[in-house]
Amino acid sequence: MQVGPNLADRYSQYAVPQNLDRAELPVTQASSALGPAGLVGAVAHRQPAGVVACITSYNFPLVNVAGKLAPALAMGNTCIIKPAPQDPLGVLRLGEAVVEAGFPPGVVNVLTSSGVDASAALVSSPDVNMVSFTGSSAVGKRIMADGAASMTRVLMELGGKGALVMTEDADVGKAVGAIASVWGFHSGQICTAPTRVICHRSLYDELVSTLANVAGMLKVGDAIERDTLVGPLVSEQQRDNVEAFVRGGVEAGHPGVWWGTPRPAWLLRGPHAAGRLHAGHASCP
Amino acid sequence: MGDTPTIDRQPVDPQEKWRLLIGGEWTATSGTYEIVDPNTTAVVGHAPDGTVADAEAAITAAEGRPPGLAGHPAGRTRSAAGPSGRHPSGTGAHLVDPGTG
């Protein structure tokens, strides 16, 4: 199931011809120790990088691919798509559309894999000119480090826990609506979602009790059931990772306010509770 | 609000044989791994488990090189989509004033 930007929009956005060369206005340069005075002109020129590896995230399996593939192809690059291991089948279907559309062989390739070795081979290859990655900060760091050996250009869209900041004059009702809506949208598994709140002391108790009330009203369960408001995390492993973060927070003295039944939704309180989750980049509601 | 579209509980055949797309060819892998529906924990299919060799084949295909010349500099050609390699001589570079230092 895709939520958010329309897949076709991503492609049509890049299907508009652009000037690849832009002339800069001439600039006079004064004489200096580095050279004589002169009139300097320049042209900004855009050209394909070559082979681009598109390594994508599990939370928007097709739209995330589209956001990398469309501009890369429009510019004249060739692509190797390496989708997230959890949900790659839709991307293989996209490959069927690519073949049907008549792309020349090799221009779009789809490589699925359960482990990291195939991705690591793409990143460290001197014949891959650019890596466009969306995913966790931990993997992003590894890609930057491995790619540095061959001076591979990288583009990173990494995980985190977005913060909602509530000042003294904030409207608690509106804030609760914004926070709770994120719990239901992809179960909070979105890098930009405000799954962390920094709240003014005077509103804190009201906020926590209201959030706990709202959380208790959200049905947690099978996302395909019509009355479900909070679906599952992407995998059992991811749920276990998040639970370990939450358990760590509770053990460190941050009281848990609400737990989903069945899992997976959590609400912790305390000045550093969200900070702990943030440090671990837990992708969760 | 219009009618809510029905969501297909089983959009793919769990027995479907999935393959990698490399150089325009659907390529089988030595192994596969299970893809699980997080709602039900049911296995919805088996994805190709690509290896380092598969990644290298994809790179060769993306470079527009014939498989027999993989890794050989003489085998480098322009890709179908545009120049490949680190030193493409794209149009427009000649417009830069050669006196600019």
Structure overview:
The complex is a heterodimer of chains A (285) and B (101). With 285 residues, chain A is α/β, with parallel strands linked by helices. Chain A has two domains: 7-12 and 45-158, Aldehyde Dehydrogenase, Chain A, domain 1; 162-280, Aldehyde Dehydrogenase, Chain A, domain 2, CATH 3.40.309. Chain A is built from nine helices and eleven strands. Chain A has helices at 7-14, 61-75, 89-101, 117-124, 137-148, 172-184, 201-217, 236-251, 273-280; strands at 21-29, 38-45, 51-55, 78-82, 108-110, 130-135, 153-158, 162-166, 194-199, 256-259, 266-268. In chain A, the strands form four sheets. A five-stranded parallel β-sheet of chain A has the order 5-4-3-6-7, with helices on both faces. In chain A, helix 1 (7-14) runs parallel beside helix 2 and helix 8 runs antiparallel to helix 9. Chain B is an alpha+beta fold. Chain B has a domain at 22-66. Chain B has one helix and four strands; from the N terminus they run ββββα. Chain B has one helix spanning 52-62; strands at residues 20-22, 25-27, 32-36, 43-48. A two-stranded antiparallel ribbon of chain B has the order 1-2. The longest helix of chain B has 11 residues, at 52-62. Chain B is elongated. The N and C termini of chain B lie far apart (62 Å). The model of chain B is unreliable at 69-101 (pLDDT under 50). At the A-B interface, strand 2, strand 4, helix 3, strand 5 and helix 4 of A face strand 1, strand 3, strand 4 and helix 1 of B.
Which terms summarize this structure?
heterodimer; A: 285 residues; alpha/beta; Aldehyde Dehydrogenase, Chain A, domain 1; Aldehyde Dehydrogenase, Chain A, domain 2; 2 domains; five-stranded parallel beta sheet; two-stranded antiparallel ribbon; 9 helices; 39% helix; B: 101 residues; alpha+beta; 1 helix; elongated; disordered C terminus
